[in-house]
Amino acid sequence: MMTPGSQSCSRSGSLQPSTPGSLLGSSEGTASAILRFLPAPPGEEFPFVQLYNHAAKTESGKWYIESCPVTLTLPCPACESGTKRKMYYISNVLVLLDPLRPENEGKVFLYKYGETVMGKINDVMTSLDPFDALEGANFRLRIIRNGHFPNYEKSTFDGPSAIGDEDLIASVLGRRRSLAALVAPGVFKDYDTLKVKYDLIVGSK
To answer: What is the pTM of this model?
Structure first.
């Protein structure tokens, strides 16, 4: 998932699932792109946010799709009922290369990613900070379709390098979007509202 401000890099709207080098555009079922993870936005502590959501299909064919308040360590009626939740992360990234969508190159996006990519980040944290604009590293995103699901295991980081010269770095960093805004309390529905919706959708067979 990526979104550059109000623009979209896919047919979906803002903050909807898509990736650089989307598999949707590849007949071979593989794709690649080069990204640069960016530092935390001004006034924010972390270069990523961790979120949870629910996307559960009931026996009747209806879907319960909601952000999970466990993100804010608040109770969630879906979790209490045993519905599985999915964890993901969002960071600001600069797209350096996107062969399938070259119009994305040079733009800053919000990038949604899962545990595999976060594992790649954690693996290199002992030797470098991949979010650093001067001494971080480019991320070679490689996507291989594994059945119906994309697989990111072949993705790797390059060696340390700067994003560019001082002017380019200033321009790129000036285009970051707030991550804290994505997990602000007002983004999430209150417990009672979620409970009514959950009972209406999941409770009906």
So the answer is: 0.84
